[in-house]
Design goal:
This protein is mainly alpha-helical. It is 68% helix and 4% strand.
Length: 218
């Protein structure tokens, strides 16, 4: 059974600190687009939705504010952080450079067990049967797996932060753009598997720039 992202299960059923569970749940809603930039985050409403008290909700909002995903205003309260076109372009520019360098590292080390997972994700994403929402999830997993293949934890954390901040920009694509995305993913992974560091870096950087330009033009 699929859980509705706007009506999640009570978080007390899991085994992490409640504040961290609420942070993860809120982060997922924000990065998936279920909660949009400018949308208010009312503690009482969130507490009821997640089946927790207001204290872990408050803790989660503070944590997400430190990550740049939430804005807290003394008069208006907490809301999902927005991102201006100029900020988005800057984030995409930096992300493109980092993703390129990570692809270079992935091609250098070629960790078989990680790249097998990337191949499986690529097959599903390229098949053309997944919903737009599923393709967004697969796209994120593909990039996460490549980041793992790069083997640089600091770099991976930096890219993860940039992805979160630009999640509201990279919304679901149309069918033609989605096919182009997965063709580019396939080319990047092919270069990584062949150990072609320079080509993997070039393709990954160009991929992020192209996707960013398309997203910002919508």
């Amino acid at each position: 059974m699929t859980q509705d992202s706007r009506n999640p299960m009570p978080l007390g059923a899991a085994h992490l600190p409640l504040g961290e569970m609420v942070r993860q749940a809120l982060q997922q809603e924000i990065t998936s687009g279920a909660l949009r930039p400018g949308e208010r985050l009312v503690e009482e409403e969130l507490a009821k939705r997640y089946g927790v008290s207001r204290s872990p909700v408050r803790e989660a909002i503070r944590a997400l504010a430190s990550e740049g995903l939430v804005e807290v205003n003394a008069r208006r309260g907490a809301m999902v952080a927005g991102i201006s076109p100029d900020e988005a372009r800057e984030f995409v520019e930096v992300r493109a450079l980092l993703e390129g360098y990570n692809a270079r590292l992935a091609a250098r080390y070629r960790r078989p067990e990680v790249l097998k997972r990337a191949e499986a994700i690529l097959r599903e994403g390229s098949a053309g049967h997944a919903s737009p929402e599923r393709l967004l999830e697969l796209n994120a997993r593909f990039h996460d797996t490549l980041a793992e293949a790069g083997g640089n934890r600091t770099l991976r954390e930096m890219m993860d932060g940039l992805r979160k901040r630009t999640a509201s920009v990279f919304t679901a694509e149309g069918e033609e753009a989605s096919r182009a995305t997965w063709r580019e993913h396939a080319a990047i992974l092919e270069a990584v598997l062949a150990g072609e560091e320079a080509r993997a870096a070039e393709l990954a950087e160009a991929h992020v720039r192209r996707a960013g330009a398309n997203a910002l033009s919508r």
